[in-house]
Task: structure prediction
Amino acid sequence: MLAAERRNRILEKVHENKKVIVNELSKEFDVSEETIRRDLDKLEEDGHVIKSYGGAVLNEKSSIDLPFNIRWKSNPSGKQKIADLISDEITDGDHIILDASTTAVFIAKNIKQKRHLTVITNSIEILLELSDVSGWDIIATGGLLKSGTMSLFGKKAADSISSYNADKAFFSCKGIDLDKGATDRNDDSVVVKQSILSSAGKIYLAVDSTKFGKVAFSKICSLSKIHVVVTDKKPDAAWLEAFEKMGIKCIYAE
Result:
């Protein structure tokens, strides 16, 4: 196994368990503990983990984009439930924007039976997923491809989105908070998502239940900018009351 592949596997484990132990990783990957320590040094240098005695813990405040394969494995059942609900919100002929979240990939997989859609996206994975669909217009934003993310970022991506007027936009985030609004890891992703918000008539926040009550580094928008929240579980009463007061429709799986 290549060192980069091993570090990727270790990073997956950190996100699953919030921590890893050096001697356990050494046995699992059949390498020396010193090799594992060097792997953890690299992951700490990249901002993903914080080394601790005998191992490392997840850096919860990291603003570094995670590799796509790790994001993909986070709560897939919840993302599928969200995609099922959103499929009912999209009608034939719609012009829609999908962001570069893994939740949006689930949405793309789920709407292939629709007819004559126009899809604008900065997600390489969505472009690949929809490449075999006929009768649709698929528009790629262009922009900077960031290593491992399967996503296009930067001014070109944001400007491209801003040049369109879509019917509906679907985006996700790393945290949703009543005071701080919708937040994400870093400015690179936020500037594109803000363009998405300004370029559609109806804004859907597609966010799984693990993101409620969390705040990430960069603010995307206040909740007042969102028309519909779609999630995999019924939010608690305080959230539902707040959504009702703000005029936000909340759709959730039973």
User: Anything to note?
Assistant: The chain has ten helices and 15 strands.
